[in-house]
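Hi Y.,

Following your request, here is the sequence exactly as I used it, all 265 residues.
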Amino acid sequence: MNLKSVAVNDDRNTILNCIVRLIADNRSIDEYVDYLLKDFYYFPLHLQFSDRDSLFVSNLLLFKNYINITYDFGRTPGEVLFSKDQLNDELVKRLRSKITKEWVDKFLQKIITIKKDIKSALSANKEKDNVIPLTLLINIMREVFIFLTIVWDKEFKTIVRNTMKEYANTKSNLYCSLNRPNVVRPLLRFFQIIILCLVKLGDKRDIDLLDTIRSKEHTFSSMKGSLTADASSHKQLVSKIMRVVDEDILSVQRIPALRTPTDDF
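Below is the corresponding structure, written out as tokens. Let me know if you'd prefer a different format.
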């Protein structure tokens, strides 16, 4: 059975738990990781609900102590980018080589597909258009960005920087869609992850971009989304993003010093 054949979310979570336990009972995890990633990249022009799950488990297995990691299935927290848990360096090195030599075109095409489907979901009529929910699409993108930031490292930096410029543009179509009231918050949460990926991979050349984002706090705070009457939750999210930007600016200025984010993503 592969993950694509499982339609019910609760069933997928149960299977994911079983997969992790199965892998823990085997000495080598290489073939399992390759199988999971193949489930993601093999059809680069198409997306499935299982794509998030394949990447989530792959991200989990990058760490030697994966069996004891307790965060929720299906959502890798952003702080793993700066985690003190020990990476499986041998696995990371092997996957980096695989991506560079064999998988790069399919991974890049998959990212293009995800971005295209996000734009389609932004303008979709849920009652008429058969599309994957926007929140799931963003979660897939979140998982692939975390994975490639850890594994592909500096080779991924240009994609991260270009995506950050897109999400930093408050006039972007991302924030001006027909479904805008329902999408601002998940888009901004992914924006947080992009910022963390950039500071992991970036350098002092990114300070101007970070400064530009910092100058747009009021504009981001003024966006209309699915807000409470006083818009407090939205403003808190924007404030959180700006705190991370402030820390990232300091971190980039101190290169090679590296900060550990204190916020829970």
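The chain has two domains: 1-151, 155-265.

Thanks again,
Q.
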